[in-house]
Amino acid sequence: MRNQTKGKKKDLDYLNNFISDCIINNVVSLEDMISAAKQQISEIDQKIIEVENLKKTRCKLLTVVSVLDKNKLINQDFSKILPLFNINNHYLCQKILYDIKQKPINIASLSIDNIDKQDIISCIKELSEGKVIYINDQHIYAGENFDNFLKFVLREA
User: Fold this and answer.
1) Of the candidates 88, 112, 94, 101, which has an alpha carbon nearest to the alpha carbon of residue 154?
2) 104 sits in which H/E element
3) Alpha carbon distance 26, 86 (integer Å)
4) Sorting pLDDT into bands at 50, 70 and 90, what band is 152?
5) Is the separation of the CB atoms in 1 and 8 below 8 Å?
6) What is the reported pTM?
7) Measured between alpha carbons, how far is 138 from 124 in angstroms, rounded to an integer?
8) I need a labelling partner for 138 at 20 to 30 A (CA). Which of 15, 40, 96, 150 fits?
């Protein structure tokens, strides 16, 4: 019985404070007080919707953090990997890299059926600039970003 009285007293206190605030703000008619209460309810409802949307976004961001945190890119700085996504002609890159994966290849012997020599040269240049490969003594070797390119760009395991 006592708990019910406390709750009602608090509600009455809030009602008295609301009416007092209305009168101070020159809202004196019953209809205007009801309208002011409805306006506040509407504002609160809008804020609740905003909070619910923020909760959904927060959940998605936690997923992003979880996925990225798990992979930590093998202690690599993500900014080092981003430029790799700008390398063009993934099909040609893939063909070249699969050959290099087996063993270093001689530049002079590099030819791919139906691919223009200039396209091959451009691809090698891009891969070299991205440190995916390096050239030494006319041979092409896997570079420091070789595995990252395969994993993150070509999506190889």
Assistant:
1) 94
2) none
3) 64
4) low
5) no
6) 0.45
7) 12
8) 150
For 143, residues 6+ apart whose C-beta sits below 8 A from its C-beta are: 127, 128, 130, 131, 132, 133, 134
The amino acid that residue 89 corresponds to is N
User: What backbone phi and psi angles, to 5 degrees, belong to 134?
Assistant: -140, 155
Q: Domain 78-153 has what CATH class?
A: mainly alpha
**What region, left, alpha or beta, does residue 108 occupy, with left being phi > 0 and alpha being psi -120 to 50 degrees?**
alpha
- The SS3 assignment for 15 reads helix
Q: For the chain, how are helix, strand and coil distributed in percent, rounded to 5? A: 70, 5, 20
Closest CA to 156 of 103, 90, 57: 90
The domain locations on the chain are 2-71, 78-153
**Model pLDDT for residues 33-46, shown as the tens digit of each residue:** 999 999 999 999 99
Give the Cβ contact number of residue 144 at 10 Å.
13
88 CB-near residues (< 8 Å, 6+ apart): 122, 123, 126
DSSP codes, 37-102: HHHHHHHHHHHHHHHHHHHHHHHHHHHHHHHHHHHGGGG--HHHHGGGGG---HHHHHHHHHHHHH
